[in-house]
Every structure is written in C-alpha cells, then in structure tokens.
Amino acid sequence: MREISAIAQKLLQLTPDALLVVDEQGIIQFSNEAASNLFGYTIERLIGRPIMLLIPERFHIRHAAHVSSYLREPSNREMGSRITDLFAQRFDGSEFPAGIRLAPFQDGEERFVAASIRDMTEHFSISDALIGAREVADRANRAKSRFLATASHDLRQPLQAIRMLNASMQNLTKHAPDLNDLVCRQEQAIDSATRLLNALLDISRLESGTVEPELTAVKLADVFSDLEGEFEASAAMKNLQLGFMNTGIVLRTDRMLFLQLLQNLIGNAVKYTESGHVRVSYAIDTDDVIVIIEDTGMGIAEDKVCHIFDEYYQVGPHDTHRLGVGLGLAIVREISRLLGYSIAVSSKLGDGTSFRVRIPRQRLLPESEAVATNANFLRPKPPSRCRVVLLEDNDSVRMATELFLSLEGIETRSAVTASDAEILMEDMRPNDVFITDYHLQGKLTGLDVLVRLRAAQNRDVPAILLSGDLQALKRVVKTSIKNCRFLGKPVDTKALLLAITDLSAR
Ligand code: ADP
C-alpha cells in the first residue's frame, strides 16, 4: 500500500472507533491507536500481519469464505448476517463479540477494505438483561394465566353453590317478608360479586394476550337465539320489548368471543333502559356487516361518549352503578380488537343509544343466502313444565342446584356419575332436560355423556352444559349444538330457568 498521507493518518487516528485497513490478501496495512488499544497489540506489531491474527482460530475457515464472497461484491456494510456470529481475539488470547463495519476503497490499482471494529460486550450484556427481563415477564404472564384458569374454575364453583342456595332460600322465605328481604339483599351482593369476578377474569384473560380467536362458521341466528334466551327474563322484568331480527347470515368468527361482545352490549342496553325497547338487528353495506344494538334508554352525554370504553369508567351519577363495574365496554373493546371489528356509538341523552359493531364483509360466508328482507322479530316462547336429570360431581353444587330446581317446581333427579345419569335418562320424556357439568371426574366431559345419550336415544335430547371454565368449553365446542345451551358458572338462576323452559318447549 502506498504511504497514507500524514493528514489522512492523523484524521484516521482521530476516529474514536478502532480502524484497520486490510489489502486483498488479508494483510493489515493500517491500524489506528483505537484498534491497537482494542486488540492489545502495538501498531507496529499489527501492520504487515494477516488479519486472521485477530480472529479466533475456530472461525478461520468461515472468515476466509466471508472475505472472498465480500471481495466479489464489495460494498459499504456490516460484516456477517448476524452480529452474534462475530468474535475477535486480543493479543492475550481473550475474545470479545465484535461489530464490524466494512468499507471498500481503491488506491490506484490496489483494492483495500477499511474495517471499523466495535467491542459489543456491553451491548450483549444489555441484550442479555433484556432477554432476562423478557423471560421474567413471560414467566409472570404464564403464572397469571395459570392463576386465571384456576381462579375461574375454583372461584366460580363455590359461588355457583351459594347462588343456588340463596335462590332456594328466597323461595322458602316467600311467606316471611322480613327474612325474604334479607335474602334478596344477599342475592344482590352475590350478584355483584359474580359480576365483578366474571368481568375481572374476562378482562385479565383478554389483556394477558393468551386468547387466540378460533374462527368457525357461526349462524348469526344461533347467536341471537342464545342472547334472546339470556336476556328475555331481565327485559320482561322491566317491561321492555326485546327484539332480535330474523337472519340467515353466517359469519366467520369466534363464537364465544362474539357472543361475549354482544352480551355486554345487550346487557348494557337492558340495564340502562327503563321503558321502550332494545332491538338487535343487522345491515350489510359495501365494506361491512353491521350488527346494531339500539335502545330507548337514558343515553350518554356527548362529552362522556369518548371515555366509555375505558376500564372502570362509568358515566355518573346514576343508581344503575351498582349494576356494573365499568369493565363491560373495555371487554367489548378488547374483543373487537382481537376479532378485527370496530365499534361506533351514537347516543342522545334521554333518548337512547345505538352501538354498531362493524365486521369486515370478508367474514360473511356464502351460506348466507337466506337473508331476511323484512325486519321480523322473534317472539319469546311460552314456558312449559318439564323434568330434569342433573349430572354434577361436586356435592355442594349438586345439592344446591337440586334444591333450587325442586323449589321452582321442577322435578329433578341427580346423578354423580355418567352411568347413573344414563340410567336415569332411560325413562325421560322427550321434553325433559339433561343438565350436566362440563368437567366431570377423570377425562370424561359432560359433552361426551351428552353425545352418548343422544346416540343411545337416537334423538336430540335437550341439554344444558354448565362450566366454570368457559375457555375449555370454547376450545371444544366450536359451533352451536342443536337443542343445547351453554351456561357459565356461576350460573344466573333466572337464565338457567329460562333455558330449561325454552328447551323443554321446543
Ligand atoms: P358498566 O359496568 O358500568 O355498565 P361499561 O363499561 O359496560 O360499564 O359501560 C361504561 C358506561 O357507559 C356505563 O357505566 C354507562 O354509564 C355507559 N353506557 C354503556 N352502555 C350504555 C347504554 N346502552 N345506555 C346508556 N349508557 C350506557
């Protein structure tokens, strides 16, 4: 290499990075002070020596390949495809991870490569710390998910028994007004604990990032029918008209998440409406399928609408506060995000509110030809008497449920094991209902027992599946099952009664 001018040498010496210049044969032609300090060689001992001197022996072959491929297509770039691959070696034999930037240049006929070298030890220790922190966060997240799974099952179970017992006490104290009043207050407290537990578990699960939507073909009519079953009692108690539009459309969605989203919106519509109606309909425009939930309720002030999707936000003051915890719309927000939907709200204080759930039109499946043209609203079905076979292996839940149903005038036969239930079902009438816990002892599920029963009786035995672990249920039951309802524990006693009367009336 021709002599580098004195000025150029001074400039190169001034650069803070270690700098080496190597010729096409891999011989070091120039080193600045920083390079000499980094490698622990004097400048004189570096110049004229092969670059391999500074590379640990195990990388020599790979390095030679890198050099020849680099010389074929020299460019200004980082050396190596992955920075973690590169190691350099000091005079004392110690190694350090190196970041090397290469710049080719020509001097007359000769070609050279300037290499600026950084010691990446600190960078990697920071990366290690980040990786460590990430592992701790992942572990915490896994612990949270485990806690949620345990909490959802183990807390819902006793709450279920308490709910059933309280509903029974309400029935027994009908003729003792003072006592009945106490039991009613107790019911309100249990209801708020249940709502809070459900909302907290739902939002934590959704925010933990562990929920993966499972998209299947879902008939909108089936979802509407489940929702009608769930809300008709509470709407009727307030003398509200609750209407669902007839529909033949099929959507590709996660059935449980979609149901949960609409449950929260319809639940609010019923909760915040004192007279008039709550209507659930849908429309299709060029881009979206729009599910519309409109009510004639109290409405929301214009300046509050932008906050209603925030966690724990409640528009106040109104006495319906005790009915909610301010998480319903945060759950709606999270589910919409997961499913790729958007939600629009329009509301007029004192006049009512309308929520529009926009579902991308690509999710509309071709089976949807039978779209109803007229807004034809489904009618609630008349209740009818029936008998129930209950399969539940948790003693306290079984006894509480049996007591509650019997006091409601529903003849109930209980079984602890699947085979007992199957024997009891043998002399059941067509409109008698089979109620079962989803998680039974061993690996058996309530769904397995139902499938067996239906096969043995060669008919769609009406059934209700109860589960404290809705997630597990969601994983298994991807579409709706004819003549079958799913209720999460702790079960709303009114919803249970309604599901029984509805199924037995079909
Ligand atoms: P909450 O548990 O209080 O119902 P949400 O997150 O579901 O919490 O809703 C937040 C707030 O938005 C509610 O407290 C209520 O004031 C208002 N809101 C939601 N839906 C309606 C509605 N359909 N009509 C009137 N106000 C509503």
Structural features, described:
The protein is built from 14 helices and 18 strands. The chain is α/β, with parallel strands linked by helices and 506 residues long. The strands form 4 sheets. Strands 1, 2, 3, 4, 5 and 6 form a 6-stranded antiparallel sheet that branches. A 5-stranded mixed sheet has the order 8-10-11-13-12. Helix 10 links the parallel strand 14 (387-391) and strand 15. Helix 8 runs antiparallel to helix 9 (328-339). The longest helix has 52 residues, at 121-172.
How many distinct folded domains? 3
Would you count the extended β strands for me?
18
CATH class of the largest domain: Alpha Beta
Helical proportion, percent range? 40-55%
Described by the principal axes of the CA atoms, the overall outline is elongated
CATH-defined fold name of the largest domain: Heat Shock Protein 90
Can you tell me the CATH architecture of the largest domain? 2-Layer Sandwich
The share of residues in extended strands comes to 15-25%
Key words describing this protein structure:
single chain; 506 residues; alpha/beta; Beta-Lactamase; Rossmann fold; 3 domains; 6-stranded antiparallel β-sheet; 5-stranded mixed β-sheet; 14 helices; 43% helix; binds adenosine-5'-diphosphate
Write the layout of secondary structure elements.
Blueprint: H1 6-14, E1 18-23, E2 28-31, H2 33-39, H3 43-46, H4 60-72, E3 77-78, E4 87-89, E5 95-107, E6 110-119, H5 121-172, H6 177-207, E7 216-219, H7 220-237, E8 241-244, E9 250-253, H8 255-271, E10 277-284, E11 288-295, H9 328-339, E12 342-348, E13 352-360, E14 387-391, H10 395-407, E15 411-415, H11 418-425, E16 433-437, H12 446-457, E17 463-467, H13 470-476, E18 484-488, H14 493-505
